[in-house]
Amino acid sequence: MANSPCREFIIKATFTCLIKFAFSYSFRNCMQVPDNSHTTYRCIKPHEPDITLIVRDLLSTATNLTVSLGSFEKIPEQAFQHLPNLSSLVLNNNQLGNIDKGAFINLTELKTLNLSCNNLSSLHRDVFGDVYNIRELLLGSNKLTDIDSLLFSNLTNLKTLDLRRNRLNHFSALVESITHLPSLTKLDLSFNHLTTLHHSAPLPQSLATLYVGNNKLHTLGCDAAFLMYVKVLDFSNNTLLSFQDFQGLNLGNITYLRLRFTKVSIIKLLNYTNVRPWHVDFSGLKLKDDQALHSLCYLLRSQSHQKKQIPKLICQDNSIKSIKNNTLNLCPSITGVLDLSRNEIKEAGCLEFLNGQNKLKSLRIEHNHLTKLFSCREAKEKFYSLRNVSFRYNRILEVNGFAFSHTPRLTNLQLNINIIAYMDHKALSGLRDLVTLRLDNNLLTDVYEDSFEDLISLKTLNLRNNQLAVIFNDAFKSLKKLTILDLGGNKIAQLKLHAFTGLDSLTKLYLDRNRLKKIDGTLFGKLNGTLLVLDLQENQIQYYTEHTHSPFINLTKLLDLKLDAQVPNGINLLPRAFFRGLTSLKQLYLTNNHITGFGAETFDDLENLEFLTLDNSCVGIAQLKPGIFKNLKKLTTLYAENMGIKFFSKEVFGNLTGLKVLHLNRNAMLTLDIGLLEKLIHLTYIDLRSCPLSCGCQNTELQNWTISNQRLQFPYLYNIICQDHTGSYFHNFDTNVCYLDLGLYLFSSTYAFTILLTVIPLLYVRLYWKFKYGYYVFRSWFGEQWRRLRDQEEKYKFDAFVSYNSADENWVMEQLLPNLEGSSFRLCLHHRDFELGWDIVDNIVAAVYGSRKTICVVSQSFLRSEWCSLEIQLASYRLFQEMQDVLLLVFLEPISERQVSAYHRMRKVMLKKTYLQWPGGNCSDPTSAKELFWSQLKRALRSSNTAGQEEQKLKEDNDQRRQEKTGVGVEEREYFLNQTPTDDAIYYQMP
Prior knowledge:
- Helices cover 23% and strands 13% of the residues.
- The chain is an alpha/beta fold.
- Helix 6 (521-525) links the parallel strand 28 (508-510) and strand 29.
- Its main location: membrane.
């Protein structure tokens, strides 16, 4: 069912936002080819099981996409719709078994679609409906059994269709599906289960190449004109086909017909069909004896055109053991290639069997049983037209002198992949026109001064993978035109002083995988005028001092130098001026050398270097010195993997202003300098995989930068695991805790701490008891006694709670109790009335709030008691907060104002409320004073807790009484006058 317009809009908007904002220039499962064009992507071994998730973050500029070795099994609808510019989509070697019909929506620019090597067993007829511009469709190596007739109906531009290695068995339906494809030129149906070519529709006239080899064809069953437009036709390995199946077919346009390993009689085929014989590949048709070859040649001559020439004769896989001198006499003149490969020929002599073939240009006798090449100095016939001879893949052990005298005009000779152990000094004598000589993969142990003396035109000499140990003087002195010399893979331990004399045009010298222990600057210096490439990989080059002169001082034109992986342990010590003189060098390879250190001047002369590999080239932690790359302004690619690099600093990397690609995989870096990354303005690719990047605050900026920049690609960033936070990933580790202004935080903390240190002492002095009272009240809040003490006044248990110090206990017991309890007052004493088992604080609170009044018996001992202080504080809080007259102060002895001022709460009570002074020795008439004292105390206890009008009335009565009273002692009056009365204070004083 088609998507609604709203849904399409939402999807497009979502992908646009993801691409533009959510994802950086880094991809979860893919890697962009670092060419700065944002067009080519590779997703190899992606972890996601959904193709949509694999490609969802790719940029819409993508034109080439490869997704291989994945585990996804399905392509859902609209999987690639955000990639409208794709021209090549490769989805091979996956587990793909199902494709939704709308999977390729919006891929109107797609030209190549590769779905080979998957598990596809069927395809919906509309699956390719949206890729109508496709040119190449590859469906090979799947499990397709049938093809819907409308499957390819929209692919009007399709040119190549590959269906090889499937399970197709219905040819007619297949033809119906392609019959309306006007551009189809190539169809590959090999390795299927076809049994016949019976059809109900014609092939498109454009189809020029048809492969149906390796099927199970037992008959063709097709119309005579069915194959009339086909030019290249392969029926090989259909073992049941015979010439009768081709009888009557129109094969007039065939330019190449392959019938290898069928039952077709080639003689009858040529007699009963209109195929041109020189267009038939005669390989695998059992032409193993001279009689068969004679008959073939006769037939070829009789049917060839007027000039009696054919361009080629291919007779591979015919089990031919020998060819007599006159075997090919009856054949028309072969002007191009004679291919006798993959037979059983044991001897080629001096090519006598080519008698009469004086126009032949190429001879191939590969994959045979040749053991020796004989001298042909006395050969009766020379083949001046022969240019290319290949004896590859034989068993040649010996090449005698003048072995190629009968082919003096050879330009290309291939003797490689044999077992040649001996080659005569004059084996190649006379080959003055030879341009390419391949002797690689043999057992040669020596080359002599005259081995190549006649090869004055030679340009390429390949001696790779032999047993050469020494290159003697003047071995190549005649090779003035040689440009490529490959000596790699030998056992060369010594190069004589004049080994390269005469190589005036040499541009590429390969000495890799030998046993050289040093680089001879004098020797290579002779090649300074021409040498561009020098390969010294995997030798045994070692240095034991840093003060070695540069062996490359004269190679000023060298462009490519390879020094990778010196055995057994690498170069180790690299001389300071080792690369001096290489002013033109563009590529330098130093991988796997375990160098203990690089000097700051190591690369100073390499001003034109563009490519440098240092992978695995250090021992332990690499201490790259500041300025080591200071002159490499043109360097564009740097491989520095697994070097133990700990710091990405501007002192080391800051001068690489032209750098585009940087590989730092498997190093010891915990973070990167973002400022440096921003200054490397040409850098487009940086690989940090397997680096232990810290997921801490020091990398907060790096995390933000990696997921927000649009210039620099971090391949597989989303797979980088936090080494210090198991289970976390670098791209999304929590950075919230890092966003603090440290300076402000420290200032605020210090400021607050200073304020607290200043205020706490003041609070302690002023509010100590308030805090303590609040704490005790809070504790008592949850007790049952707290709720009971908050009842109304008539429910009070006691008339007064007596707070006193144990030092004053005698006065309380002898004076206070008899006078008050004798007058029916109920008093609460701590030693008598406190509840057993209660906390003492809870008892004090219960006593204060369970009594209508609190009598504090103040003395010097009272003021020094913490518990007495607590009791008066609790009572005073009740006085001031509940606005009830609940506190009575009784002074047993004179207390100075200075002593009272330390008790702020008591002094405040004295200024606001009444207090009594026990008449002691200061009174002239103590008896009358005591009577007045007890009278006033009882009156105060009987008064209501509401102070207001009662207190005002009491004040007025007291004033009047003092005026009328007579006989008051002088001392008492002076005491009274010494007080500091206020307007709202009343003093109870004994007369």
